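Quarterly update, task 2.4: NAP-bound model.
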Amino acid sequence: MDIAIAGGTGTLGSRVAEELRTRGHRVRVLSRRSPEYPVDLTTGEGLIDALAGCDVLVDAANGHGTAKGAARTLVDGSRRLLAAARAVGVQHHVCVSIVGCDMVPMGYMQVKAEQEWVVREGRVPWTIVRATQFHELLASALASAAKWGVVPVPRARLRTVACMEAAWVVADVAEGVPHRGRIEVCGPEDTDVREMARVWRNVTGRKAVLMPMPLPGRMGQALRAGALTVERPDVRGTMSFGEWLRTEQVWASVAGLR
Ligand SMILES: NC(=O)c1ccc[n+]([C@@H]2O[C@H](COP(=O)([O-])OP(=O)(O)OC[C@H]3O[C@@H](n4cnc5c(N)ncnc54)[C@H](OP(=O)(O)O)[C@@H]3O)[C@@H](O)[C@H]2O)c1
């Protein structure tokens, strides 16, 4: 199949692209910095040319910064993607989203919920793949905070998943027929950010002090109650945060020996 991946240079998108190429598909990587298919979701530039002749579109793009800024890429960008996809006859729009995004009163999560709505209401057959936070995201947040010697850790239940395991699910969905529904993928462990921070410190040997951080209000309540987790996912990844971290450490030391 010919498969376009918006955000195909990103954390998830690059892994989905690699996986689908390995499975024998012709993959187009779409992003602002893509040399072959440069597109901008905030303007629509390049989309028609990039999507012409594609069977499937995977949207793994992301928007950062303020909620308003993120919405320009994710919500307005989805409208532009869907319009272009419909114009050139794409058969399946696969949107990557987040488990529980409609349950947490947080700007970015509300943007993701709105993006899902745009996809559901759109005229291109669709499937939404919801994933929990990636191990990669948590490890990178902890490492950034540790630069200051102190890591603030809220009480929040998560079920992080290895990005590669989420990418396999997205690739499976892209190869299948549109569900007009949601597929949810999460990691193997229901755990707490504080426990994950302790695991991260043990495995990486970092000395940063873990400082409990209260999360007040409805957002804190939702995160403590596990709003970003799911009890019965469609797919449960197998690699825990600790196992993933240890594997990363091994790869880093092998790379250091080269
Ligand atoms: N990270 C997580 O833990 C996690 C968990 C669950 C679900 N998700 C969802 O998975 C998706 C991908 O997340 P990610 O963490 O992999 O994102 P990421 O690493 O930040 O990658 C974002 C991608 O979007 C592209 N992009 C950004 N702005 C663009 C624009 N205006 N036009 C075209 N392309 C643009 C970027 O490429 P250029 O900069 O070259 O344009 C890049 O390829 C998002 O929908 C996110 O909500 C993420």
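Highlight for this quarter: The chain has a mean pLDDT of 96.
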